[in-house]
Design goal:
Strand content: 35-45%
CATH architecture of one domain: Beta Barrel
Strand order of the largest sheet: 1-2-3-6-7-8-9-11
Radius of gyration: 28 Å
Number of helices: 3
CATH topology of one domain: Porin
Oligomer: single chain
CATH class of one domain: Mainly Beta
Number of strands: 11
Helix content: 10-25%
């Protein structure tokens, strides 16, 4: 996580060093420069403007309409122009577990599907208030995530929103919104950090069942067992 944050910070710093349109080169020579045909036409327009009493037929630059980028935040050029439409990934942590998946889409809109081994770390506090117990419940999980790219923070870093659904063999169904950051490592590889705020309505009951706990009383997961939120780190290979 710390390495990922460091890479993103470097990318943001490099983006801030890019020259802006307000910077103009200084003159290096005092010798006269011949006027181009466009400049000669401009001088002619000025004379016509004066002769017509201040009325010019040529439209001003402000009246010219240019097409706008539908997602202005993603208009910044990327370091790599290779395809980002499809790939495969390896993942760790909450969302897909320790597993594999497929990535389909563009930097603006796409879908990921994956799965793997994703155990559930459960805690239980008895009604008497005795010390809490912790147990690791082995489980498998599959998940599907749709994402929308919102902003390019730097030439290598994209930020966006996602919505995901997952099925875990212990906690069953879960779904919710989330966020992601994607950092381009090279023309073919990217590192992605995702977090999902998921709700699993059957998690409390299923954990009690799998752990052979009383169906009522006590506290599973501090009373928040149904909130199965977490993050994931994925390493994507754009084939």
């Amino acid at each position: 996580m710390a390495l990922f944050a460091a890479l993103v910070c470097v990318d943001l710093a490099l983006a801030g060093e890019q020259p802006t349109s307000s910077q103009t080169p200084t003159a290096t020579s005092a010798s006269p420069v011949p006027k181009s045909s466009d400049e000669a036409n401009s001088d002619s327009d000025i004379v016509t403007y004066q002769l017509n009493g201040g009325v010019s037929a040529r439209p001003s630059d402000s009246s010219v309409k240019h097409p706008k980028e539908p997602w202005p935040g993603l208009a910044r050029p990327r370091v790599y122009d290779d395809q980002r439409s499809y790939g495969v990934f390896a993942s760790a942590l909450f969302l897909y577990g320790l597993g594999l998946g497929a990535h389909v889409g563009t930097p603006r809109l796409g879908l990921e599907v994956g799965g793997g081994f994703r155990p559930v770390i459960a805690t239980y506090t008895p009604p008497s208030g005795d010390n809490s117990k912790v147990k690791l419940l082995g489980a498998w999980q599959v998940a599907a995530v749709a994402y929308v790219g919102l902003y390019r923070l730097g030439p290598r870093t994209d930020f966006g929103l996602l919505a995901g659904y997952g099925f875990n063999t212990v906690t069953l169904h879960a779904a919710g919104p989330g966020l992601y950051l994607q950092y381009d490592l090279s023309s073919k590889f990217a590192l992605q950090l995702e977090t999902l705020f998921a709700y699993a309505p059957e998690a409390d009951r299923r954990i009690r069942e799998k752990w052979s706990l009383p169906t009522t009383g006590g506290s599973v997961g501090g009373g928040l067992a149904n909130l199965q939120s977490g993050g994931a780190v994925t390493f994507i290979w754009f084939t």
